[in-house]
Each structure stands twice: as C-alpha cells, then as structure tokens.
Amino acid sequence: MQPAFDVEHSDGHRVSHAEAAAVNLANWDDRVPIHERHYDGLRLLSADPTALTDVVRRDLPVLAELLGAAPGDPRPLAGRSLAHLQCHLGTDTVSLARAGASVIGLDFSRAALDVAARLSEACGVEARWVESDVLDAAAAIGTTVDVVYTSIGTICWFQDLARWASQIAQLLVPGGLLYFRDAHPAMLALDDADASELRLVHRYFEDGTALEWIDDSTYTGGDERVAHPRTLEWPHSVAEIVTALLDAGLRIVALREGTVLEWSALPSMVAVDGGFALPEAERLRVPASLTVAAVRP
C-alpha cells in the first residue's frame, strides 16, 4: 500500500475478488511505464553486477539467520529455489537471484513481467516469470520451492488471506520457509494526511469490505499520472495474518516488528538509513513494519 497525502478515499465497499483484481490491475499496468522510467533499481542492477535493492539488502540477514546460513555470507540463498510473489518489475527478484537463489517471479501484470524479463536478461540472471493472480499461485507456478518470499505492499490488494496462505503452503516443500515483510497494520491505520499527531483514521480489522482510493499519482513521485486512479484495498490485522498461516498448516518461526519502512507512509516520517521512520521522539510509539516467517512441517 502506498497512500498519498492528498487522495480521496472511502470505506465499506463490497466487491468480488475478480472485480477488485481488474480494478487494481488497470492501475498497476498504468504504473509500469512510469516505474520503468523512474526506478533507480533498474539502472543500478543493470550497471553493477554486485548491486542489490535496499529491500533485499534489508531482508537478507534475516533470511540468512532463518535458513542457518553463515553470518555475512553474500549468497545465503545458494542452492535454494525461491518463488517471489507479487514481484512487480523484478528488481527484488533479480537481487534474490544474486544472493544465490534459483528464482521464479510471479505477478498479475504482464506489462510488469515484460520489464522484469528485460531486466534479468540485461543482468545475465536466469529467472522464470509467471503471470498469475497471487491467489492462484500454486497452480500457475506448478512446482514446489524451498522459499516463498513476499515483501512490501502485497496483502492489501486482496481480501482472502486464507486462500493466500493456502497457496503458500502448497508451494513450499516440507521444511520450506515463507518470508513475509510489509508495512505494519497499525501503521496503515494511522492518519496519512495530517502530520500534527498520530491518529487512527482507517480500519485496523478486516470486515469483508474494501477501502477505495482515488489517487492518480504513484510512489515514484514526479508529475506523471495514471489513467486509472481507482484502487481497492483491504486492511489485515496481525492476528488475521498469523492465523491464516497457522490454519494453512504452517508453523510460525519468527514474528518481528520494526521502525523503518521503504516509503514514507505518513507525512511526518523522515529519511533514515534503509528508508523512512517516524521522528525520533515518536519512533517507539507505533511499529512501522511487520515480518513473519513460517515453515511448512
């Protein structure tokens, strides 16, 4: 989720998954050419064979720890197969490949995957790109993997977390690891238009209805606008996320909360090493990120 500070929004919309997916896909397809022009990661990865995205650089030490890799190992995913769900332009996917993984990137946008394929070719990185709704990921990918990775701006785009968790369980080999990191649900419930105080204005709990946003901007900034500004999103609480994974038969092995995000989710956030955080005086009042790791028994 990438809320802006001057958008229209309303709550309580009852829509089918198919309707929401079509609305959101139109918006994300519009973002692709804008993001391709403005993503620094595309140029950095192509120019430097050792480069990684900030997202993956942040996640790798935790992945290494969870997988039992040696501390400081630059390729902690070596010898492991990995499915990156909702991969968008593939910058994180290519970075994960550089960390040693045999990668599959899945996204619902064909346009995004075309950019990802060009990126992996330019980087000399072998990757498989799969076009699919994430809620149909297991059948679309058609094989099991050692690691399922999904990070930053993912689960807000659909309502059915039980089906999402089921796809992950089907994708993982026995002993395989899910790594999930995203904005913390508490952070997403705060007022994203007023920087004067931390104030709850959005739902924390999912009730079956969507939050509608009308926003023709995109998080790369600048003046470029999308033709389809409407998106539909769902809040998901920490308990809902964890329970969905447990109900799918997975075993939770880590749950962590952090103070830094890769984007400025609130107007009061300030630039820090690795992204954005609340001002120091408020930083410990509310978590900014949530990481959950789970294993298939």
From TrEMBL:
Pfam families xref list? Methyltransf_12
GO terms for MF: methyltransferase activity
InterPro entries from the xrefs? Methyltransf_12 (IPR013217), SAM-dependent_MTases_sf (IPR029063)
| Domain of life (superkingdom) | Bacteria
Transmembrane stretches in the record are: none
> CDD domains from the entry?
AdoMet_MTases
**Which keywords has UniProt assigned to this entry?**
Methyltransferase, Transferase
Q: What SUPFAM superfamilies would the database entry show?
A: S-adenosyl-L-methionine-dependent methyltransferases
Residues annotated as domain Methyltransferase type: 85-178
Q: Which GO terms describe its biological process?
A: methylation
Name of this chain's protein: Class I SAM-dependent methyltransferase
- Name its species: Agrococcus citreus
